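ok so i was messing around last nite and threw this chain in just to see what happens. nothing serious, just curious
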Amino acid sequence: MSIVNRQKDNKSRFKRVFLIVLDSLGAGALPDAAEFGDAGAFTLRSLSRSEKLFIPTLRRLGIGNTEGLGFLGTNDSPEAAVCKLAEKSNGKDSTIGHWEMAGVISPNPLPTFPEGFPDEVLKEFSRITGRGVLCNKPYSGTQVIADFGEQHMCTGDLIVYTSADSVFQIAAHEEVVPLSELYRICEATRKMLVGRYGVGRVIARPFEGSPGSFVRTPHRHDYSIEPPGETMLDALKEAGLDVISVGKIKDLFAGRGLTASHATSGNAEGMKTTAELVESDFNGLCFVNLVDFDMLYGHRQDADGYANALTEFDKWLSEFLPKLREDDLLMITADHGCDPSDDSTDHTREYIPLMMYGKSILPVNLGIRPTFADIAATIAEIFGVEYTCCGNSMLGELTDLRQHLVASAVRAMENSYSPYSGYKVGAALLAASGRIYSGCNIENSAYSPTICAERTAFAKAVSEAEREFRMIAVAGGKDGIVSGIFPPCGVCRQVMKEFCGPELEIILVEPEGYQSHTLAELLPCGFSL
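result:
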């Protein structure tokens, strides 16, 4: 009997989402990376060359199944859903990256100051702080205190510096400028830096020690510019859900949209705090940033250190996964790249990986997604919160195999070669092995040699030694938009009969849902040898 599905079930089976950002773990250069000076950047590939990298847990989840990450090792039986996301915003920094994954797109990059800050900014800064300025250049955070720390101690002038990021950093010795004063200075500076000088973050960089042995203390504090629109965090909080941050998340969102926050000094404390939170009862989102990958290793071009940090995370993850509950969803991703093997200490404009794991999550491959904001749309739908952004929810594909096949067939339409009919058709074929093979229609001016999407999918699968199949979805329409039902032609039905029994499920995609039929229904008098 035919099944007709016209409406998606929005009932969520999740109570808690843990969204963990491995800061700067890029998954390969974006198509426009060259415009940012990042052609060929590939953070994960650089790490894969290090002998320090050992990530059996991430490989078990299926990180190597992600598009373009096969060099990490593929897994025929992955435990997580995977994809990689492109950045729609115009930038490559932590602030814009986190904003986008929370649903806010930034069409303009945050301002940077490669020549230092202009005189008008420094004059106003000195007026509101009562102190002079040292440095005012892009600088390494450890080198700047080595070069200017003694002069700062003698004069009381503040060390102001920046980087390739959109930051205004203020370094001061804790015995010269007490933390409370440094924080007040940063708060006043944050209010001052708006408009064309509205940097992403003002950062307090306290240090201690004596000349020749200065070291930064763990009392760093970031003061971020507020997101320019409503974020998914705002929507969750407004709906009465818990929104808990770990690490620099609070700083990146200027404290907005949060119900609780936990500051951390680095990865170790961030992982420890997250492990404690998984044992607690809450209903909502736990949003975690592990900053050491970027701060300690990416910017310092330390590939081995970076790889070792990812190895440590993988070990922690192996102990964290068993603690997840039936109604938990774990999402592991990044916010940009910072290739430790390129010619720059700057961030790199890259795709980000995304792995999603939970007891009710299908271990499917969602390919390449057009925006980080798909994360926001997915989390909003999980909790039934009304939130509008440019992202599309992945929840249906993650929990309903038919929805995933439908979406895969629609995506396959994009590759259609149909200059004669103008109709694009896509198919997604599920083999008994669990692999999905996509196909599109390929036309020819002679028409008779035209290959339908269904036969393309079957040819790909059979050429990979697949012989048993469970279901196939077919979608079609003009201009790449589903605009009707496209049942398989007689030739395609006979090809299906060659490899499948009468119970093969055939999903015909409609503009507002899908129909489900068996092969016996569509080919009642099929023949075989």
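not much to say yet. The domain at 22-105+228-364+373-399 is CATH 3.40.720.10 (Alkaline Phosphatase, subunit A).
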